[in-house]
Structures are given as structure tokens and as C-alpha cells.
Design goal:
The chain is α/β, with parallel strands linked by helices. It has helices at about 1-15, 20-30, 40-55, 60-70, 80-85, 95-120, 130-145, 145-150, 155-170, 180-185, 205-220, 230-245, 250-255, 260-270, 285-300, 310-320, 325-345, 375-380; strands at about 175, 190, 195-200, 225, 275-280, 305-310, 345-350, 380-385, 405-415, 420-425, 430-435. The protein folds into 3 domains: about 1-90; about 115-165, no CATH class; about 175-435, Rossmann fold (3-Layer(aba) Sandwich), CATH 3.40.50.300. It is elongated.
């Protein structure tokens, strides 16, 4: 607290003693009374601000300042003003303002934590998980506060050095593998990206992103798959089928032969040495998702986060908030984009398209099929839409299709434009195989 006191006095002293009125006025335009912890300093800054709204000479007019403080019945005395004025003024006022601002935010977060703790102690809490999540979010904001602000304040030399280090060290990369070679070659994923994978219901969007997830494990990409649709064990069963090529029905019913059993055991042993996580359950809301990501980032490296799927996250937020659906979409999508930037990770968001596509002759999905697409389109770095003509083939729709053609349309890809990639989908194992050709 003594440092805060010194910083506040040094800044006010600089304003009071500065002979350049224009510079002092410029400083005042950057200062908010709320960033000051001590009441007398708040009142003094507020007084200086109010005086100089109409009277530009008031800044250096001691009598005018004293008269104003008396009118508002302030505790700031003439002796206090003289005491502050005798303090050695700061040299770098921008730095001091930034320090005081961060200190104020830290104080607010600590106050928030105290409120949560008091609520736990004095209330009969039936669902303590939400309070724990709120606490972790507050702690995370405190420990990683203003990441993007610090990042934006990097000077040119620091940015150039960071770029040089990355270029000169083979183990450091700007991009993260998407799990498919054709995707990596045409539409690389950059850290900080928000990727949207969208499709009609039952088109295979979860299977597609699970293929990305499983393939990334082979490249030692550290990832977490968060699903609101199924329990973790069901997710792992699907992953096993994708990784081993053994039909999911055989694994599920445990009718595998000795060789298949060996393959399953080997894959499970291999995964023990991989850094990956699966989190399932319908109760995952945005707060819990953010807590999971921040916790994993604090305890170790994290490269990619999968969230399956956006519609269920929105539904959870709608039950908690009185805001309209469009506002919720904007809040959730922008929050996830900022999270990707803050933690220098890729977030892959699975999204279900509306049913309007069924009414069109051309069934290929487009941007109009996105619910509240304006917010999503603006925040996402890549928008990938999955489509298969087999889905709409009446002769084959209700027949078991072992293999079918799938297309991923890149409706948006920053720096890379539009395009498409072709895949073959093997239904019995849920595996996707890139079809190499002109587009791939």
C-alpha cells in the first residue's frame, strides 16, 4: 500500500508542479479518479478535472483550487496540497497511470473474491460448483490480467526479437497442425485463431473434429475436447475407433479379436504419454469452459481447444441472462476469440446450422445458414462448412453407407480466401481421409 501512496503522490505532484499547462491538461485527460485508492487523492484529481472543464488557467491557480475544495466540503486541506507538491514528481507519468490502473483492477478482483468467500461462509449453498468457477475466473483475471494489453504494448524491438527467435528455432512455430495435411498446406491454423466448423445435424461435424483431435495427438499437439453432448467415456470410445481403424460397433460391444484387442491396448498405452484432455457433460457452461481452459493453461502447455457445440453453450447462457439471443451470441463468440488471443491457442468451435438449407434446391451450406452469422463471421478467423450430397440422396439416406464423399467448404479464411477440401468418410470407424487432387 505504501508504494501505491507514493505513486499517487508522485503523479499528482507532477501535475501540480508542471509549468507546461498543456502537458498537465493532457495528463488529466488520461487520468480517472477511480484509479486512485486514497480518498483525498481522488477528490483532488476530481477537483482539478472539474475546474479545468471551464477554466484552463485553474490548473496552476492555487487559490481557485482551494476555493473549489472548500465548496464541496472536501477533506483535502491546504497543508495536504503543499505536502503533495513537495513530493518528488514522477518521471514517466504514463507508466505510473498504467500501474495505478492495474492496481485498481487487482483490488476489484480481490474484493470480488472476498464477496464470493463470504457468500460461501454465510449461505446454504446447494450448488457450490458455480461459485468455485466464479472464483477461478476471478483469480485467472488477476494472475493473467491485461494479457492483450501487455501484448499490444510490446515495442517494435521486442516484437522483432520475438519474430527472430521463432524463425531461428525449429521447435517454435507460428502455426498448429489441423490434423489433416491438406488443411495444413492450404489453410494453416495460427495461434490466437477462432475456427468455426459448421454443418447440418447428423452431417458428421463431431466426427470430423474428433479426427482432427486424434490426428493432432500423433503430432504431440496438446489439446482438450470439451463436449456438451456426451460423457467422456463415449468420446474416448469414438476416438479409439478413429485411431485404430477398428469398427466402433466392435469396440462398443467388445467383440474384438485378439489382434484388435492388442491394437486397442497399444493405443491406450500410447495415449498415456500424450498430453490431452476430454471433458464431457451437458452442464458445461461458458464460465466452466473458461475455467477449464485457464486451469489447463496454468498447469501446463495447451495448444488447441475443441468445444462441441456452440448452440448448447448459447442455451446455457440464455437460461442465466435476460439478454436477447443475438447479444448472447456476440458475448460468447467474442469472449472465446479473446480467450484464444489471451492464451495464444487455437479454439475450434463446432456449430450446428439451421434447417433452412433443407428448403433450398441447392443444399450446399452458406453463410446465411449461420444463426446470427454477423457476430460469428466477424469473430472467426476460419469458417468451415461440411457437406455431403449423400445426406440428401433419397435412395441412400436410410441405407448403411460404408463410405461417402464429404466436402469442407472454407467460407472464410483470413489471408487465404475461399476454397474447398475433399474427404472420404468411413462410417463404421468414423474416420475421414483426405482425397488428394487439385483442391487438396
Amino acid at each position: 500500500m505504501s508504494k501505491t501512496l507514493s505513486y499517487e503522490k508522485e503523479l499528482i505532484s507532477f501535475i501540480l508542479k508542471n509549468k507546461d499547462s498543456n502537458e498537465s491538461l493532457e495528463i488529466l485527460s488520461k487520468v480517472k479518479p477511480d484509479i486512485f485508492f486514497f480518498k483525498e487523492h481522488k477528490e483532488l484529481i476530481q477537483a482539478l478535472l472539474n475546474i479545468n472543464k471551464d477554466n484552463k488557467l485553474g490548473l496552476l491557480n492555487k487559490e481557485l483550487l482551494e476555493d473549489y475544495l472548500k465548496k464541496i466540503d472536501s477533506d483535502v486541506t491546504t497543508e495536504k496540497i503543499l505536502e503533495i507538491a513537495r513530493t518528488r514528481p514522477c518521471i514517466d507519468y504514463d507508466k505510473i497511470i498504467n500501474i495505478l490502473d492495474k492496481s485498481k483492477k487487482a483490488h476489484d478482483y480481490i474484493t470480488s473474491l472476498k464477496r464470493i468467500i463470504l457468500e460461501v461462509e454465510t449461505t446454504n449453498i446447494t450448488n457450490i460448483s458455480d461459485l468455485i468457477n466464479d472464483t477461478e475466473c476471478a483469480l485467472d483475471k488477476l494472475t493473467s490480467n491485461n494479457y492483450t494489453e501487455q501484448y499490444s504494448l510490446l515495442n517494435t524491438k521486442e516484437c522483432i526479437q520475438e519474430l527472430k527467435d521463432t524463425l531461428n528455432k525449429p521447435q517454435l512455430h507460428f502455426t498448429i497442425s489441423a490434423g489433416f495435411n491438406n488443411w495444413d498446406a492450404n489453410y494453416p491454423l495460427y495461434r490466437g485463431d477462432l475456427i468455426l466448423v459448421a454443418a447440418r445435424t447428423s452431417m458428421g461435424k463431431t466426427a470430423f473434429t474428433l479426427n482432427m483431435f486424434v490426428n493432432q495427438l500423433q503430432s504431440n499437439v496438446k489439446a482438450v475436447f470439451i463436449t456438451l453432448e456426451m460423457p467422456p467415456i463415449k468420446l474416448l470410445l469414438r476416438m479409439l475407433s478413429i485411431a485404430t481403424g477398428i469398427k466402433s460397433k466392435i469396440i462398443r460391444e467388445k467383440t474384438y479379436n485378439m489382434n484388435e484387442h492388442r491394437l486397442i491396448d497399444e493405443k491406450l498405452e500410447e495415449w498415456k504419454d500424450k498430453v490431452f484432455y476430454v471433458k464431457g457433460g451437458y452442464n458445461n457452461n461458458l464460465s466452466q469452459i473458461k475455467t477449464t481452459i485457464s486451469r489447463l493453461k496454468r498447469t501446463g502447455d495447451l495448444d488447441v481447444v475443441y468445444i462441441d457445440y456452440l448452440g448448447l453453450v448459447i442455451s446455457k447462457e440464455l437460461t442465466k441472462s435476460k439478454r436477447d439471443k443475438q447479444s448472447i451470441y456476440q458475448y460468447v463468440v467474442n469472449d472465446l476469440k479473446q480467450l484464444a488471443i489471451q492464451y495464444n491457442i487455437v479454439i475450434v468451435l463446432v456449430h450446428q446450422l439451421n434447417r433452412g438449407v433443407n428448403k433450398r434446391e441447392d443444399k450446399r451450406p452458406n453463410m446465411d445458414d449461420l444463426r446470427d452469422s454477423g457476430e460469428i463471421e466477424q469473430a472467426a478467423d476460419q469458417i468451415v462448412m461440411l457437406h455431403s450430397d449423400d445426406y440428401y440422396n433419397k435412395d441412400r439416406k436410410y441405407l448403411p453407407i460404408e463410405k461417402k464423399q464429404m466436402v469442407s467448404y472454407f467460407e472464410k479464411a483470413r489471408e487465404h480466401g475461399f476454397g474447398k477440401l475433399d474427404y472420404e468418410f468411413e462410417g463404421s470407424t468414423q474416420r475421414f481421409f483426405p482425397i488428394m487432387g487439385e483442391n487438396n
